[in-house]
Amino acid sequence: MLTFEYTRADSAAAAIDLVEREAEAKFLGGGTNLVDLMRETIERPRALVDVTGLSAAIEVQEDGGVLIGAAATNTALAEDRHIREHYPMLARAILAGASAQIRNMATVGGNLLQRTRCYYFYDDAAHCNKRRAGSGCDAVDGFNRIHAILGASEQCVATHPSDMCVALAALDAMVHIEGKDGTRQVPVADFHTLPGDTPQVETVLAPGELITAIALPANPATGQTYRKVRDRASYAFALVSVAASVRVEDGSIADVRIALGGVAHKPWRATKAEAALRGKAPSEDAFRAAARAELADARPLRDNGFKIGLAERTIVAVLQELTA
Amino acid sequence: MEFTINGSTRTFDVDIRTSLLDLLREHAGLPGTKKGCNQGACGACTVLVDGERINSCLALAVQYQGRAITTIEGVGTQDALADIQAAFVEHDGFQCGYCTPGQICSAIGMAAEAKRGLPSHVTQDLAADSVTLDDDELRERMSGNLCRCGAYNGIVAAVRQVFVEEVA
Ligand SMILES: Cc1cc2nc3c(=O)[nH]c(=O)nc-3n(C[C@H](O)[C@H](O)[C@H](O)COP(=O)(O)OP(=O)(O)OC[C@H]3O[C@@H](n4cnc5c(N)ncnc54)[C@H](O)[C@@H]3O)c2cc1C
Ligand code: SF4
Ligand code: FES
Ligand code: FES
């Protein structure tokens, strides 16, 4: 680990100012990803601005939505009564991630910005365009069982590992961002980017911009859940995961949202599957056709072809559970 | 940097990069907390901060200044074992013992979480006010602590004996 200066910010403005002033400065949340990457010298910040003292409030808004301060811990968000009752897919997604110890430390802001678990990204001896632009990608023709089947490029086939973000994408959550030039909001589904020719770029966040909050829109009463498929029953990253909600009215699907985890460089909102289902009567055949419509563009690598069938079956199973 | 460790106020002058785990083991003279993976994957380094369990290997000590840290040395002593320590002995909750300090601190944090109604990945009813700690719940909630000796059955038995009745 390279040495660094440490400051604890007491306001968003102060945090932004501090990161602006110091060269190669980074915000520090719970540190569960950043400290690990600094130890491996994959991340080399020279200054850390601790933002865990900023807003961690979880507040129901007048319009029925919820505003979540970026410093809220993963545990606090999953524990919140209103979230458990009205956004159960979000509570379930968080509880399916990492371990209790890590969820106690990890913040919502840090969870959004956690980096890929691609083995070659962590291995300094490997070629990795994300770690060193232009150096190549050892995963494309290497061990790629955990890698992407949708939206990947020749330059990078990594996945985004978050569970929480998959639920946020399905819920149409917004990321509240603050920088030296003011504030803006970006839908979670547009916040992370596909790798293309610049896999080192992972989000639309500009250098020095701070995530201040996540906003959940008021949620129509729907059945919703999160299902995660992994190599062991707990404490493992998703091979494939599905966050979904369905509302059936008069025998046809009035509202459906589906997002997939473990399949792409970002939480993958399954808009094609949603479009195929809207207005249809719920049935296994309709669910399967919708899943296939979404996965028609999936491209298997050497070791991860199983994810296509697994994603299809998981989508079908989740939709069946929600409409049973 | 100042901390309250096992009830005593302690001050250290250490490199800014020092993890809470290394601070405890190398500087505070408390080697009970163990270093397994040093990357968040095993739970051997679990300690309690203001009563909440965390992995001290992923924690920069500087972030936890001013907080109350409890390590296994603060849970009980050789002459006066805490109930959970005695239960680990009684139920063979370990073989080599390397994961045990982390398991015990984790179990204490877990019991507090269950008491306040925090659901887990295996909880059916997220809206329920209270948690029933059956063995599936215990295993899921303790899954952040690996045991390479595979003493899991003994660990579950020890945790069940001490904490399940207390919660219910
Ligand atoms: C063993 C292990 C298993 C795990 N398993 C899972 C899993 O199954 N599912 C899952 O979803 N996750 C898993 N995780 C990842 C975990 O969820 C993340 O490490 C965590 O959410 C990161 O949050 P943090 O606050 O610790 O972030 P940090 O490590 O502090 O920061 C991460 C990044 O976010 C930036 N950042 C932090 N806050 C802000 C902010 N407010 N504004 C702008 N930038 C910010 C930092 O600069 C840094 O680049 C696992 C982690 C470990 C170590
Ligand atoms: S898949 Fe992406 S992160 Fe992994 S080695 Fe290739 S470029 Fe690096
Ligand atoms: S040593 Fe901290 S989790 Fe393994
Ligand atoms: S007792 Fe040996 S690792 Fe658990």
From TrEMBL, chain A:
Keywords: FAD, Flavoprotein, Oxidoreductase
Pfam families hit by this protein: CO_deh_flav_C, FAD_binding_5
Coiled-coil segments on the chain, per record: none
EC number: 1.17.1.4
SUPFAM superfamilies hit by this protein: CO dehydrogenase flavoprotein C-terminal domain-like, FAD-binding/transporter-associated domain-like
Chain ranges of the FAD-binding PCMH-type domain: 1-221
Gene Ontology molecular function terms on file: FAD binding; xanthine dehydrogenase activity
Alphabetical list of InterPro entries matching this protein: CO_DH_flav_C, CO_DH_flav_C_dom_sf, Diverse_Substr_Oxidored, FAD-bd_PCMH, FAD-bd_PCMH-like_sf, FAD-bd_PCMH_sub1, FAD-bd_PCMH_sub2, Mopterin_DH_FAD-bd
Gene3D superfamilies in alphabetical order: 3.30.465.10, CO dehydrogenase flavoprotein, C-terminal domain, Uridine Diphospho-n-acetylenolpyruvylglucosamine Reductase, domain 2
Name of the protein described by the UniProt record: Xanthine dehydrogenase YagS FAD-binding subunit
Organism from which the protein derives: Sphingomonas jinjuensis
UniProtKB/TrEMBL annotation, chain B:
Pfam families reported for this sequence: Fer2, Fer2_2
Domain of life from the UniProt record: Bacteria
Keyword list, A-Z: 2Fe-2S, Iron, Iron-sulfur, Metal-binding, Oxidoreductase
Residues covered by the 2Fe-2S ferredoxin-type domain: 1-75
Statement: the UniProt record of this protein carries the keyword rRNA processing: no
GO terms for MF: 2 iron, 2 sulfur cluster binding; metal ion binding; oxidoreductase activity, acting on the aldehyde or oxo group of donors
Record-linked PANTHER family: OXIDOREDUCTASE, IRON-SULPHUR BINDING SUBUNIT-RELATED-RELATED (PTHR45331)
Protein name per its UniProtKB record: Xanthine dehydrogenase YagT iron-sulfur-binding subunit
Originating organism: Sphingomonas jinjuensis
